[in-house]
Structure formats: C-alpha cells, structure tokens
Amino acid sequence: MELAAQSLAAQLRLKRSEMMLSELEAVALRLFEEPGFDVTTVEDIAARAHISVRTFYRYFRAKDDVLQLRIDRRGEALQAALSARPADEPPLHTVRLALEEVVAAEDAALVRRWIAVVAATPSVVKGVIGGIQLKSQRVIAEFFADRLGFQSDAIVPTMLAGAVGGVIQAAHTRWFLHGGDLATTISEGIEVLERGIGSDPTTWTDGAERRVRRKAPLRPPGAGSRRGPRSEDPERDPRRRRKSRSRPD
Description:
Elements: H1 2-36, H2 42-49, H3 53-59, H4 66-84, H5 91-104, H6 108-120, H7 122-148, H8 155-178, H9 182-197, H10 207-214, H11 238-246
Helix pairs in contact: 1-2, 1-6, 4-5, 4-7, 5-9, 7-8, 8-9
C-alpha cells in the first residue's frame, strides 16, 4: 500500500512537472515571437507565467533551453514509437510511420511558432541544429544500427539518419511556407527517400566493408583481360599484323 502511494505521488509530481514545462514553453514562445528572443528575459517569462525566476531555473538553465524542449520531446516520443513498430517491417518504412504518428500528435500551432522564432533568431540556429543532430538524429541512427546489425556510429546508420533528418528539415520548411499537414508532408518526404534508397537492408553495406574488398590482391598482368596478353610475333597478333601491313614497303 505504501509503495503504491509513493508511486502515485511520483506520477503526480512528474505530471505537474510536464505541465509546467509545457506552460513555460508556450509562454516563452509567445514572448520570443512578439518582442523577440534577444530582448526577452527570464524575468519576462517568469512574470508572464506567474512564477518566480527561481522556479523558472528549476526547469531550465537558460532561456535558450526552452527551444530544446520540443527537440527532446520529439526524440523521446520517436524512440517509443519506433520501439512499438513490428521488427520485420522495412526500416525506412518504420521510420516514416513512426514519425507520422509522433508529429500528428504535436501541437501544430506551437511547432509553427517554434520554427518562426528559430528562423528569426540567427543566434539560436546553431544550438537548435546541434540539438536536432545530437538528439533526434541520434535516435534514428541508433534505430537503423540496431535493425541492420551495425555499430551505432557506422556509416550506414549515420548517413541514413542524416538523410532522414534532411527530409524532415525540408518538410518543415515546406509546411511552414505553404501550409498543409506537417505529419503528412514529412511522411510523403520520407516516402520519396524510401523509394529512392529501397527497403532491402541486405543491399546496404558499410563503407569499411567496401574498403576491405578493394584491397584484394592484384592480378598478374593480363589476367582477366578481355584482350589477353599481347603477342610479340606480329604474324600471330592481328592488331600488330594490320599495322605492319599498312606500312609502305
């Protein structure tokens, strides 16, 4: 009974913490968009959220970290969605469906505001891109590595995750500029990648494996040549015989 009560209390604390994070993110994004990121202070965010500055710092180390929350949450949700997909599903297809599920559950208005703030604030672009590469793309790379039997830092999962990341970024840009449904746009973008790369993992090899294959022993001169070794006797070599006959006497 006591353990159950402690577990329930822990769940309530976690839920309150998640609600506070969401509230602070929404308040901060509105301020970042209206007066601007650079002029907005932690004091401004705390005042608009009706909390103390000390409480803000319990959840974020700096105002820049507010922009990382969306990346963190998508990464966590994507990891869970990937784990729930069938193990015999083609990997790129799995990523496409998992991303579609995760993005469809997000608040589109907040995502649009987040993109607008990042696009209008050059000083935060580096941190945001770094967060995406080190968090979201890492989740995708680890999934590919596990599914295809590679090390997590091997070239195949790393490059596939980078390709998927590029598609996601392009889809966000297209959606931001032209509207529509973000989850569908990302799904259609990855479908293009899926058709281009193919879905058979047996065709994907690591760069290190190809380099080993290239180090095969050299064949002797003339071995395997379609023309074969050249004869020294012009009468036995048709090419040289033609040349010798064409010379004037």
